[in-house]
Amino acid sequence: MAEFFITRNDGVVELRFNRPESRNSLTFEMYQALEQLCQNASSVGDRVIVITAEGEKAFASGTDISNFKQFKSAQDAIDYEAMIGRVIGSVRACTVPVIASLHGIVAGGGAAIAAASDIRVGTPDTKFGMPIARTLGNCLSVGNLDRLVQLLGESRVRYLMLTAEFLTLEPLVQSGFISEVLESPEAADDRARALAAQMLTLAPLTLSATRDGLNRLAVKSLPEDQDLIERCYMSNDFANGVEAFFAKRKAQWRGQ
């Protein structure tokens, strides 16, 4: 079964995640498909990108953890975070608007993709989180932390990360992270497509100038974070977290 589908309709291109059996956990191929879509949008005539997901339980639950079984060195972790950074950066730097239709669990890499999108619609069951302190014991790059702080506020991000809890719909709407709430995943997908169709009727230079201007306002010099990535990904705790996930047991954290 295909991990994702890409469809085009009169200037609107839709990327649909299609791994509902794993709550749409993201493979490297899925990340790369999104990156290429964003990088090539203008050259192939795409004017709006819509990201949706199959299944009732999740938009995307994060990176497929089987990928982490292959990690052997600090460079593997650094390369992974760099790859995620490129994907998220491609969404932010995309020459056309990106709309995400969210429902259910929005976590990890899925949360980062949602945060990088221009507009997010959701459903009453939408839950947003980065529960890595409970699941794997890795960390977010400083760039991803900064993006979450800009969207949700520092206090919410501290709560989110330090408790490993999920934010439910109310704070997501209050912060403006989710613009509209629809009654079902299907309704949210339809609304995202309708917003994309509406954008096709608007002045493209106004849209691009607005997005570029907002992105410039968000630019700042970020501190180095390689030592933080190595601290987490090269730890015994991270190896134990991956092992515990597949053994379906609770990880035992030792701070080592």
What structural keywords apply?
256 residues; alpha/beta; 2-enoyl-CoA Hydratase, Chain A, domain 1; six-stranded mixed β-sheet; three-stranded parallel β-sheet; 48% helix
Structural write-up:
The protein is an alpha/beta fold and 256 residues long. Helix content is 48%, strand content 14%. It has one domain: 2-enoyl-CoA Hydratase, Chain A, domain 1. The chain has eleven helices and nine strands. Strands 1-2-3-5-7-9 form a six-stranded mixed beta sheet, sandwiched between helices. The longest helix has 20 residues, at 74-93. The chain is globular and about 55 Å long.
Short description:
Helix content is 48%, strand content 14%. It has 256 residues and is an alpha/beta fold. The chain has one domain (4-183): 2-enoyl-CoA Hydratase, Chain A, domain 1 (Alpha-Beta Complex).
- Helical content stands at 40-55%
Q: Strand content of the residues, in percent?
A: 5-15%
The second-level CATH architecture is: Alpha-Beta Complex
**SSE topology string:** EEHEEHEEHEEHHHHEHHHH
CA-atom Rg in angstroms? 18 Å
H/I helix tally = 11
Q: Which topology does CATH recognise? A: 2-enoyl-CoA Hydratase, Chain A, domain 1
Lay out the secondary structure.
Blueprint: E1 4-9, E2 12-17, H1 28-40, E3 48-53, E4 58-60, H2 74-93, E5 98-101, E6 105-107, H3 108-116, E7 119-122, E8 127-129, H4 132-135, H5 142-152, H6 154-163, H7 169-174, E9 180-181, H8 185-199, H9 204-218, H10 226-233, H11 236-247
Parallel strand pairs: 2-3, 3-5, 4-6, 5-7, 6-8, 7-9
Antiparallel strand pairs: 1-2
Helix pairs in contact: 1-2, 2-3, 2-10, 5-6
